[in-house]
From TrEMBL:
Protein name, as recorded: OBG-type G domain-containing protein
Gene Ontology molecular function, alphabetical: GTP binding; GTPase activity
Domain of life: Eukaryota
Species assigned in the record: Pisolithus tinctorius Marx 270
Ranges of residues in domain OBG-type G: 48-271
Amino acid sequence: MGIVEKATEYHLGLLKAKLARYRAQLLEPTSKSGSSGTGFDVQKAGDARVALIGFPSVGKSTLLSKCTNTMSETAAYEFTTLTAIPGVMEYQGARIQLLDLPGIVEGASQGRGRGRQVVATAKTADLILIMLDATKSEEQRRLLEIELDAVGIRLNKRKPDVVFKRRTTGGLTTTVKLTKTDEKTIRTILASYKLHNCDVMIREDITTDEFIDVLIGTRKYIPCLYVYNKIDAISLEMVDKLARSENSVVISCEMALNLDYLVEQVWESLGLVKVYTKKRGERPDLSDPVCLRKGATIEGRSSKFSPHAQKVSLNHQVQDEDVVSIFTK
């Protein structure tokens, strides 16, 4: 990278940091009187929450009714759903809450329509399903990604491996070579946030944007599936192309095509695992599992379906399926 390119990257990084800070203040004002991005008042229920997001008339309400037997007012015209409609889907012993959110429009992250409420509710989801019309261009997908990114939702990304702590003294430590940004840019961004004394450990080759996300601290990293509806109205060649896209599922709500596969992919994307409980001297009840996220920790005795239960500590990580003995007095 030449001197001119480094200087441009440095000033661009500083500009991005300022824009990110101002945008965060607009979306999440600190004063109680500010119009923060408050979501719809829908209680979280079940083992996981899945948010259905899309432009109007892409079939979200129809999908909700097909998967959960929940009736949501639908019509062929736009802007039918005006609030969040919840439903519960049961699969593999898990109760998964589906939220049909109102269709959003371009500019939703700035408050157009009910967009701010939609994206605020989406932040509470464990998985986002972006509903797309297979008969329309890919521009719809790009616009939805822009709206979600603008409010701090990072789709199909993991949190950067950066440790940040405020200190009275401190410094910057990197364990990898930085090729997408540099220490000068990072130190300047820290100074723009008035962070002159802190410990920062960077353990992967991050970008300037990713470092700013860590500083903001309110970003949500949520898995996402792109669901292309109305495949009955396009050619087989286009169906094949869409189906092969990463994190994509093709369906037809009207004809109930491929809905079973979509449910399977929702389960896989949520990363849920089943834990079966048992009392001393009794066989585990395999009909009523407790569903946890992969990597969750439990306390009890784990047998992994072996005849001899073994003690597990508080930091025992749950595998795909576990049997845990619950000892009661």
